[in-house]
What we know:
Low-confidence stretches: none
Structural class: alpha+beta
Amino acid sequence: MKRLHKRGLAAAVPILVLVLLALLAQKLISPGQSGGPPHSYQTLIARDLPNGQVRSAVVRTKDNTVGVTLTNGSTYEVGFIPGQAASDLVKDLNAAPNHPQFNVEGTKSSGWLSLLTYVFPFLIFLGFFFFIMRQAQGGGSKVMSFGKSRAKRMTADSPKMTFRDVAGVDEAVEELHE
């Protein structure tokens, strides 16, 4: 039972580590949305900008989102369709009645993040491969010995005496045990 528990734990730990690393990578690559009521791009263009409710905005062309801060202090983010919509949004921000401050952030990216994106899956695959090979070469593992024969060679001079043959002789039984 202990042996089964150790094997199960040894198999579960790498899987758990992989799942945690995948969740961490997902958080790094795509951060979650901020809380608050849901807003749409249409709400921003049709209601908030014409009514002068936008204090500032940050247009992010990398992930096609707009971070909006309203005059009452609340913030929200909305997405927009890439391409012409970014330049139209900048024109709408310039034409807004209260002239909100805005900033356009380009497509900058972290060198470490891009390196991690390309190298990390390869490292996971390599680590998994080495883990499997180490398990296969371990102590009593028979994974890679499927082609080996377990047959024993019988020769004419090998003893064929069993316990039944010497059932009544105590000395012979002791010799067979040895």
